[in-house]
Amino acid sequence: MFAPTYLDWNATSPLDPAVREAMLPWLDARFGNASSRHEYGRQARAAIDEARAQVAAAVGAHATEVVFTSGGSEANNLFIKGAAACRKPGLIAVSAIEHPCVREPAKQLARAGWTLREIAVDGAGRIDATDWADVLQARPAIVSAMLANNETGVLQPIDRLAPEASGAGAWFHSDAVQALGKMPLDFRKLGVHGMTLSAHKIGGPLGAGALVLDKRVELAPLIAGGGQERGLRSGTENVAAIIGFGVACELAAARMAAEAKRLADLRGQLEVSLRDLGARIFSGDAERLPNTSFFAIEGIDGETLVGKLDRAGFACASGSACSSANPEPSHTLTAMGVAPDLARNALRVSLGRDTRADDIERFAAGLTRQVKELRQLAAIAV
Amino acid sequence: MLKFPIYLDYSATTPVDPRVAEKMIPWLTEHFGNPASRSHAYGWEAEKAVEDAREEVAALVGADSREIIWTSGATESNNLAIKGAAQFYKGKGKHIITLKTEHKAVLDTVRELERQGFEATYLDVQENGLVDLDALKAAIRPDTIVISVMMVNNEIGVVQPIAEIGELCRDKGIVFHVDAAQATGKVAIDLNTLKVDLMSFSAHKTYGPKGVGALYVRRKPRVRLEAQMHGGGHERGLRSGTLATHQIVGMGEAFRIAREEMQAENERIRMLRDRLMDGFKDMEAVYVNGDIEHRVPHNLNISFAYVEGESLIMAIKDVAVSSGSACTSASLEPSYVLRALGRNDELAHSSIRFTIGRFTTVEEIDYTIDLLRKRIGKLRELSPLWEMVQEGVDLDTVQWAAH
Q1: What letter would DSSP give residue A322?
Q2: What is the ipTM of this complex?
Q3: CA–CA separation, A156 vs A289, rounded Å?
Q4: Considering only CB atoms, which chain A residues are within 8 Å of B5?
Q5: Which of B25, B34, B104 sits opposite A12 (nearest CB)?
């Protein structure tokens, strides 16, 4: 099979072989329902408990604070809607660069008597200090701000924002889906009430995620039924995926320091070439995830470039996968004040475990060639 | 060679069929794309696999693939169907009807809607576990908007008259939801003829993986829902969240196998179930719970009077069975399903659910019969109540001393 070079790790990541090995018995002889009290069930229950401890350990939480869900989207929905159901309608504030699975639930609250406010970001995508102070003045009941943005990789100072929001009476949630495995995460130190994680961004399987939840926060479940996950998430546990998630967390935590440095170096190498092409690197001067580069080249349409790169054997993205059917420019860039014309040129390259220096070299050469061709075409058209 | 413990709890979950696992594994290795990625081949091939699986699920139940919405499982499907329809049609009315014997995923969802201001009727069933259609008709109010009735009961395996209820609902313009988690691969489902608007499916009860299910949402006449999970707008906006390709592929393959093999398989399973039932027929004070005709061949739910179910389960560790559904097995309450049939607490407490499946063998059934007979004999020997019955005492007339 012809395998394009995969440079879209923020969309999803290939399953780590060690994770796959850990999962396979649970798709085979160990098939019990974790709620069954016979040996098949008890075996599954014990394995889920172990995975819960692994996930908790990777993020500095207690195992009983981990609520397994079907993924990051569900965890974000659970916190926002679940918290809203337990509080009197008031103000919900979410950053202007959130993933749709935070923005959309927040919009739903706005239909149910809540006031929705977006927290402005500066040109680098960081929460704007003046607007933040203003939001706190308004005494929000729920605040959600992502730790690391899926497109630019920009980081928010959650360990500072969360206590401030709590002090103002809010329950603070952070979507840490893109941060997990790429930077140190400590639930306690961040001081958040809820934090969303996903398995498939860190070499774990699709179909598993978690909400890490401070027990002082009361949530109404999104999915009612058998009462699994302390009543917060009913439904037969996806044992194999949960086991995979646990192992993936353990591996990610163990490798993170070395891997973060390696990826940052590779990205540095890539961005030298990008600057040579005259690219604007979004959030380039801010603190970012080490693996992500989101950039635009004047006069080169992002969709066109992504298509040409795909045919040349490089899989990358013009933005987040979830909105890749959407022709609108990235809402993250719009919120950062990037002009629509430049935002439409955006291209996201995200690196991961399998990315090597020669992948970056080949990609940089391929990109340079495609950009030259497109520029020549543009020159002819003029 | 028998492998212990013998698994007779197929209604709690089924093993993944090896053919299903084989089909899933490539999607756990080289084909890892996000089906929503539109900019490269990894995404496209994942999207195609998801659409092929959707066709297979639709084919088993006589639906159009555009009517199939992926979810994380039947519990989510039930929540989405009932809350989604109730919230969408709340302008038309606020009354919901369901059965007392439904799965918790339906009952708790309806209870949640009651807290939101809806009203609910939880209908009794007949002694055989089947709904009384006249009682259902009588329960319908002008403001009834949703009726939810399961196709196959998870504890006693009885099959409800879905076709008749469908006619009734269509006549009255009521949205009809059916939890079919226990039905796929066990009874034929044809949504071309059944007047069902919403139907919930699970993969892991039909030899597919855990963590994936589907909701059928009828297009003609069109049924509308309020989404319960918001985000990237996957599944036509009805269910956001990255699709788990390998799981979906597994569900598709599991449903394909079910379509092709269910007829032959069910005959074999019926033979095994009847053999199991015959094995107990000369025993005293043994009662089958639920109608035996209108029932899937996989299920045998029996009460062995004067034997406490939990003690019996402990005494037959070589056989993995349950005394009720897995979801309620942590509680020591007697099964609410058996209580709804009018069984008293003692009989409900002495029940065992045997559920038979694809990998059950004759040897396993024979071993189980033999073991059960021996252990029940032992436990009854220890039971003072059994002794009294043997001596001809009518326990109903005994005045028990309070203590």
Answers
A1: G
A2: 0.94
A3: 11
A4: 38-40
A5: B34
- In what side-by-side order are the strands of the sheet with A346-350? A280-281, A292-296, A346-350
Among candidate residues B140, B292, B313, B327, the one labeled active-site is: B327
Quick check: helix, strand or coil at residue A13? coil
| Mean pLDDT for chain B overall | 94
On chain B, the residues whose CB falls within 8 A of the CB of A37 are 313, 322, 329-330
* Burial of residue B256, with CB atoms counted within 10 A of its CB: 0-12 exposed, 13-18 middle, 19 or more buried: buried
Taking alpha carbons only, the member of A285, A327, A334, A323 closest to residue A302 is A327
Q: Which residues in A58-88 are b (16+ Cβ under 10 Å) and which e?
A: bbebeeebbbbbbbbbbbbbbbbbbbbbeee
CA distance B369 to B358: 19
Please write the tens of the pLDDT for every residue from B19-57. Answer: 999 999 999 988 989 999 888 889 999 999 999 999 999
Confidence band, pLDDT 50/70/90 cuts, at residue A1: very low
Per residue in B168-198, pLDDT (tens digit) is 999 999 999 999 999 999 999 999 999 999 9
Q: Which tens digit of pLDDT belongs to each residue from A144-155? A: 999 999 999 999
Q: Which residues of A touch B38 (CB under 8 A)?
A: 321, 324-325
Interface contacts A/B by beta carbons within 8 Å: 267
CB of B11 within 8 Å of a chain A CB? The answer is no
| Token code pair at residue B111 | 């209870």
Dump the DSSP string for B282-338.
Answer: TSSSEEE-S-SSSB-TTEEEEEETTS-HHHHHHHTTTEE-BSS-GGGTTS-SPPHHH
Residue B326: pLDDT band (50, 70, 90) is low
Nearest CA in chain A to B5: A39
B12: which 2 tokens? Answer: 């709690």
Spatial distance between the Cα atoms of B302 and B288, rounded to a whole number of angstroms: 4
Q: Model confidence over B241-276: pLDDT tens digits?
A: 999 999 999 999 999 999 999 999 999 999 999 999
Q: Going edge to edge, which strands form the sheet with B213-217?
A: B68-71, B213-217, B198-202, B175-179, B144-148, B95-99, B119-123
Catalytic annotation on A316?
no
Q: Which residues of B touch A223 (CB under 8 A)?
A: 75-76, 79, 228
> How many other C-beta atoms are found inside a 10 Å radius of the C-beta of residue B366?
15
Distance from the Cα of A228 to chain B's closest Cα (Å) equals: 8
pLDDT at B332: 63
